[in-house]
Write the structure tokens for this entry.
Amino acid sequence: MAFNSVHNLSNVYNFYMTTYAPKSSTSYDSHKKSELRSVYNSIVKMNKEAPLYILDTSKEAQEFAVGMKENARELRNTIASLGGLDEDKLLNKKAAYSSNENIVSASFVGTTTEGVEIPGVEVEVFSLASPQTNMGKYLTSDEVVGLSEDMYSFDISIDDLNYEFQFRINSEDTNRDVQERLTRLINNANIGISAQVLEDEENKSCMVLESNATGLKNNKSMIFKVSDHRTSKTSGSVDYFGLDYVSRAASNARFSVNGEERSATSNHFTVGHLYELTLNGVSSEEGETASIGLKTDVESLTENINTLVRGYNSFLRAAAEYSERQPKSNRLVHEMSSISRLYASGLTSAGLNLNLDGTLEVDDEKIQKTAMGEEAKEAFASIMDFTNSLVRKSNQISLNPMNYVNNTVVAYKNPGKNFATPYITSAYSGMMFNSYC
């Protein structure tokens, strides 16, 4: 029973995360015991003096709380990815370049040591990794489906897991009606397959299934398989709609690194624990390569600041989207904007311009000119302070996103004479779990 409860809670949280919030997961989401202990102590301290609330547990409040918590986590991870959260490392991440972005783009994921040169690589791309595509039969769209009225089902096997899809066909259903119904059924299941309905000029339509993953692992012949031979309900729909026909098999990427030929199941991978590469196209002629290496310190700093500003602006816009449904989100926008206004003078002198809505714009030319000046360290001190303030604020939002939901205060605690109440934080997870089972 305990396992089912944990499993259900995981499903609930994953549902809200994938529906309302960013989906990224990075190495910065793993933590040491000391870091987790610090988070717990922060929760205890935060709730010790917190007033008692009547919580808003509406779907809109749930969406807002989860979205803001995950967007705050995303902002913190973005900052951490720019060199780390320590002041000495902040914004010091090296940036990689590619001489031919049409073939491959790159980012630096390794570590640098003073006095140790990071080697560059030459990449030539022969073919890209591709997904598996199943294309069904073209059937007259407005014609009544040629299957008897009944409950049907079929199975999709993917990643050694088997998923059964059940649906009903009524006597008046057309081919297009059932195709669209099956498309929604597969897409809503979120099993790693995307479905769509294509229509031609002759008023005929077909279903197309495509895997989200690319390439073939462990010598497998296909990524997914559609069948209704051993399904629990009536069979026949797979053959009628042609869902089992593989029109394009999945294939691995083929490329060379410094002349050594390699293959990968994905177009996104790392090389030598130094560069993270994304293959974008095939070399137009034999021997055409893209040179991958590190940008100069000034170019790296400019790119890091641009990444920081994109993360900050993205968070601010995400919070502003809830202004009509969650009025307290305006307070969050105001608090974030106040941070940028506090450092506005220093940010402007370094090359960051503050807009009226609180967002920032980057003047790359001014940043590079400032970075090469004699007083670069002093000029960029405001950006460092601004970044540190964003880290602290994102941590605060992550710890208590319910602080920005429309809750009603019932009573304030007696200051200085309270017991720690860490269980108050269960309201965040509890409101999602409530009524789920």
The two ends are 12 Å apart (CA to CA).
